[in-house]
Amino acid sequence: MSKGDCQIGVFAAYASAKGRALVDRELYLPKSWTEDADRCRAARIPEGKSFATKPELARAMVRRALDSALPIA
To answer: Which of 8, 10, 31, 45 could be stapled to 57 by a disulfide with Cβ–Cβ 3.0 to 4.6 Å?
Structure first.
């Protein structure tokens, strides 16, 4: 397996006094994957999935959490 042959998940967790749960996730793909349409198609990556850094993915998940019904103080 070469260095570029991986898929990594970025996860968002919610914690309260009552417990913890994973509430969102994003698939991180290296730029070498997103630039190779045939590879993405073979791996069944949804069309239109573009490269995003892990911090960019995390920011999107935080925005979704803040816009959700989660009781965030």
So the answer is: 10
d(CA 57, CA 53): 6
Residue 31: closest CA among 3, 58, 11: 3
Full-prediction pTM beyond 0.70? yes
Q: What are the tens digits of pLDDT across the range 48-65? A: 889 999 999 999 999 999
CA separation, residue 23 to residues 13, 17, 19, 26, 49 (Å) = 6, 16, 12, 11, 21
